[in-house]
Design goal:
single chain, alpha/beta, Alkaline Phosphatase, subunit A, two-stranded antiparallel ribbon, 16 helices, globular
């Protein structure tokens, strides 16, 4: 009888532990999304409603909240490869490394642990599939720039689903030599390649493994910014929904899904505030898709949201006790798209471009003058840059990590930041804390302050990997 009672207790304990484990894990990474990117977006959403305060994003309402440090092994300021490696493997490494340490040892990622534990695995992003953050979950390379070699690691990992813009170097090795196309290699390894959402839906049922990219002819480096999105463009929310659909089909023991909002970082590198807040909202839309799944499986699902680092040194205020974040809604395109508009104007009219031509673009795309009054100093700044670049033909593009910007477009984004009264300290990464949010099975593990290396360890514990 006593032995029976002990056995019963063990069964009940095992059942309790099993119920606490996360069968389904969602790991969202907002690249470049520091505390102020989140807070600023919520203040912007409240300002759109005509009030002071915040309108919470869905993920900021999650019950577990933490902050994480982000320094790498080699520098107080990390790059995305080292930060991604920390978030994927729980180990610090040098800037530029893809899940390898300084001694070239391979570091196992949480995704690989999940796969080894019998879970299906998906790695998705709004930038290229071979970019640093998605790469650290499936690849092992000494340099993040080894895009071709990173892509070759996909079959080695054997994950079930990959999605993003495409591949940056599908037929060129790191030493810039022609190489066999990655696409037949992936297909021979059992991956079905779908270009666009319609093709994915047509091929999903018969595919054992899937790679979802944008339609043929689209930019393989990334999805369009949310602010520039056109009808038919692939979105991060659609990728998230497609991943869930694919990973949850058939007999399954659960899944692990990483989703990166990669272009928050790109917009911050450009110091483009309107584009930043739209990208944070876009990530929240993808989280909403996962949350709908969570509501159907609340005891078995864990959702974690964090960032790899902060980008831009965003400051909410620029010296006065006022802000005008609502004005960000007047900007109709990213600064990249605005730059293209000025380049097209230059090509179309050459030396015949007048200030009125440039002014018309600034009114239409940025809302300047018509809806957003400018100071005399701000207008003079724009006029001076116009004279220098269009009249004197002294065209020096502003350069950040992911873009080259026409001088007048670069001046316009600076004026917008001034007008909404925010500041930037950098065109690169900073060492600020990043936020962590979690809901669901094991979410209590994520409250408090800790290093970014603790996050995958907590996921491993919650998932029972």
């Amino acid at each position: 009888m006593k032995r029976f009672v002990h056995l019963l207790l063990l069964v009940l304990l095992a059942s309790t532990l099993s119920a606490q484990q996360a069968k389904y894990v969602f790991y969202f990474i907002g690249d470049g999304m520091g505390v102020n990117q989140v807070n600023g977006t919520e203040m912007y959403l409240a300002a759109k409603e005509g009030r002071i305060g915040v309108r919470p994003l869905l993920f900021t309402t999650f019950p577990a909240v933490g902050v994480a440090t982000t320094y790498s092994q080699s520098n107080p300021i990390t790059d995305s490869a080292a930060a991604g490696t920390a978030l994927a493997t729980g180990v610090k490494t040098y800037n530029g490394a893809i899940s390898m340490d300084a001694q070239s040892n391979i570091l196992e990622s949480v995704a690989q642990k999940a796969k080894r534990a019998g879970r299906k695995v998906g790695i998705t992003t709004s930038v290229s599939i071979d970019h640093a953050t998605p790469a650290v979950f499936y690849a092992h390379q000494p340099k993040r720039s080894m895009y071709y070699e990173i892509a070759l690691d996909i079959p080695k990992a054997g994950f079930d689903f990959h999605a993003g813009g495409g591949f940056l170097k599908p037929a060129e090795s790191a030493d810039k030599q022609p190489a066999p196309s990655i696409f037949p290699i992936l297909e021979e390894a059992g991956y079905t390649i779908a270009r666009g959402l319609d093709e994915f839906k047509a091929k999903e049922a018969q595919a054992g493994r899937m790679i979802l990219m944008q339609k043929t002819g689209a930019d393989p480096s990334c999805l369009p910014y949310a602010i520039d999105r056109q009808s038919g463009d692939l979105t991060l929310a659609q990728i998230t929904q497609s991943a869930i659909s694919f990973l949850a089909k058939g007999k399954e023991k659960g899944f692990f899904l990483m989703v990166e909002g990669g272009k928050i970082d790109w917009a911050c590198h450009s110091n483009d505030p309107a584009t930043v807040v739209k990208e944070v909202v876009d990530l929240d839309d993808a989280v909403r898709v996962a949350y709908e799944f969570y509501q159907k499986h609340p005891k078995e699902t864990l959702i974690v949201i964090t960032a790899d680092h902060e980008t831009g040194g965003l400051g909410l205020g620029n010296g006065t006790y006022t802000m005008n974040l609502k004005a960000l809604d007047l900007q109709k395109q990213s600064v990249d798209a605005l730059s293209t508009a000025f380049t097209d104007l230059r090509k179309a009219k050459g030396k015949e471009v007048k200030w009125e031509d440039a002014l018309a673009i600034l009114v239409e795309k940025m809302g300047f003058w018509k809806e957003l009054p400018l100071t005399w100093e701000q207008e003079r700044k724009l006029r001076d840059v116009f004279e220098d670049s269009f009249v004197k033909n002294h065209v020096v593009f502003a350069q950040s990590l992911y873009s080259k910007t026409e001088p007048l477009a670069a001046a316009a984004k600076e004026v917008m930041s001034q007008a909404v009264r925010i500041g930037w300290t950098s065109l690169s990464h900073t060492a600020g804390y990043v936020p962590v949010y979690a809901v669901g099975a094991g979410s209590k593990l994520f409250s408090g302050k800790y290093d970014n290396t603790e996050i995958p360890k907590k996921i491993v514990k919650a998932g029972g990997y």
